[in-house]
Structures are given as C-alpha cells and as structure tokens.
UniProtKB/TrEMBL annotation:
InterPro entries tied to this protein: ABC3_permease_C, FtsX, FtsX_actino, FtsX_ECD
Name used for this protein in its record: Cell division protein FtsX
Function: Part of the ABC transporter FtsEX involved in cellular division.
Keyword field: Cell cycle, Cell division, Cell membrane, Membrane, Transmembrane, Transmembrane helix
Length: 305
C-alpha cells in the first residue's frame, strides 16, 4: 500500500509540474549526451594515437650537393659513403630502433612526383636535388629525442624530423575540442541541477498541505521525501535514456551509415560499438543518482520534515 501511494504521488508530481519536468528531462539529456560524447571523443583520440603513433617514422635526412651550398648544417659538403655507413651502424646498435629503411635520391624523387606531381615546383626538380634519408621506426614513438640527440648536427646530416610532431598538433586540436565539449557539459549539468532543485521546491510547495498532514499523523521524514526524490530520479532517468539514444543514433549514422565516415575515411581507426555500450550504464546511473541527490539536499533545506 505504501509503495502504491509513493508511486501515485510520483505520477501526480510529474503531471502537476509537466513543463518543468520536461525542462529537466531535456537539460539532463543534453548534458549527459555531451558527457558521453566527451568520453567517446577521448576514446577516439586514444585509439587514433595508438593507431598512428605505431606508424610514424623518424626521418634522418642526409646532405646533398645542393644543401652543401645553401644549408649551414651541410657546410662541410654532401654526405660521404663512410658517414652513411657510420650512421647506419649507430642506428643498428640503438635499442630504441625497431626498423630502418633507406630511401635513395631516386626513390625520394619518385615519391615526391607521386604525391606532388601537379605542383609547379615538381617539373623543375631533378633526382640529384632530393635528399637521401633513413626512415626509422621506433619501438616507442615517445623516444624520438634519443634519435634527435644522436644525429642532429652530425656531419652529413641535414636534419632530423619526427612525424609525431605533426600528429601532436592534430591531437592537441582534438583534445581542445573535447575540453570545450566538457565545459559546455558542465554548464548544462549546472542548469539541470538548478532546474531539478526548483522543480522539487515548486512540487513541495504545491503539496505543503499534504505533507503537513503526513507530519501530523507521524509519517517519517524519508516517507514524506521519497515521492519528491523519486520524481526527480524518474525525470533524470528519462533524460538519461534519451542521452543514450542520442549516442547510439549518432554512432550509427555518423560512423556506420548516413555520413558513413568509416567508409569515407579509411585511414582513421574509429571506435567500435563496445566503446559506446560500455558508456551507457554510466550515463544511466548518473542520470538516476544526480537528480535524486540534488532533490534530497534541496528537500533538507526547503522542506521542513
């Protein structure tokens, strides 16, 4: 009987403050959708890091005759056969190096023509103007500085370049966007909490006569508070369900179908459904507990029981 009474009070409260209840549901749904989206964005960035960092190379570019005339790093002339042999020997002895690939001037010229054949500069270049290089795959991409320290400034070496630096700029941008989404999420959560508190206060005020009678007949404080807390929890849970729906639909239409980014951007390793599904229980639990706790503390202050 008591459970039936509490459930009936929940239904009455939700219908009585329908507009504010709807506002709570929408704000909770948007804030938790952003929350889930930011978590998935972090997973996506980490997945891309693991995928791309495993493929990046450190390139040791060697001096050619043209560099000897124009580049201070090559002031002592083009790289010699002995210098190349010593560089290769040193690379073989380094424990951080996984694999070394040599690229000749002809190969560099061929690759340049394949990538930038439409460039006006391509027609004026010749193979002897290209640089020989060693493409180094590291066991740990974070160990780039070991290679840079060992070869930067050495005779015959024009420069040492790390492809990871280019990716760091991209991932920095993605992380910045992720933090911006989290800031908006935090703002939406504050708005949702304020709406929940106000909804509970209005509901408690509109039913002050009933709660007064319940106090007189000896009802416990929790028994009086339970309908208000559960109203907020139910509204929040509905909002959490909507947020979960947003995430599932977004993953389906943006990555798998609709925009179908997984087909159009084959070079990106997108997160799978497992990453989405593992976030849904957290979102639902947050949507249930957050409004319930907000209502509990609001009642302690505004409802004298």
């Amino acid at each position: 009987m008591r459970a039936q009474f509490v459930l009936s009070e929940i239904g009455v409260g939700l219908r009585r403050n329908l507009t504010m209840t709807f506002a709570v549901i929408v704000s909770v749904a948007l804030s938790l959708a952003l929350f889930g989206g930011s978590l998935l964005m972090s997973d996506q960035v980490n997945t891309m890091k693991g995928y791309w960092y495993d493929k990046v190379n450190v390139s040791v570019f060697l001096c050619n005759k043209s560099d000897a005339e124009s580049d201070p790093n090559c002031a002592k002339g083009a790289v010699t056969a002995d210098q190349k042999k010593q560089i290769m020997s040193d690379l073989d002895e380094m424990t951080v190096v996984d694999k070394v690939t040599y690229e000749s001037q002809d190969e560099a010229y061929k690759h340049y023509k394949e990538q930038f054949g439409d460039s006006p500069l391509a027609s004026s270049l010749t193979p002897d103007q290209m640089q020989e290089s060693y493409r180094i795959k590291l066991k740990d991409p974070e160990k780039y500085q070991v290679i840079a320290t060992a070869f930067d400034g050495r005779e015959g070496v024009q420069s040492v370049q790390d492809q990871k630096g280019i990716l760091d700029n991209l991932f920095g941008l993605l992380n910045g966007m992720n933090w911006a989404a989290r800031a908006v999420m935090a703002l939406m959560l504050v708005v949702a909490l304020m709406l929940i508190v106000n909804t509970v206060r209005v509901s408690a005020f509109s039913r002050r006569r009933e709660t007064g009678i319940m106090r007189l007949v000896g009802a416990s404080g929790f028994y009086i508070q339970a309908p208000f807390i559960m109203e907020a929890a139910v509204a929040g849970l509905i909002g959490g369900g909507v947020a979960c729906g947003f995430l599932v639909v977004a993953r389906y239409f943006i990555i798998d179908h609709g925009l179908a980014l997984s087909e159009k951007l084959n070079l990106i390793n997108f997160i799978g459904w497992d990453a989405v599904l593992t976030k849904l229980p957290l979102i639902l639990a947050t949507s249930l507990l957050m409004p319930a706790l907000a209502a509990f503390f609001a009642l302690r202050k505004y409802l004298k029981v």
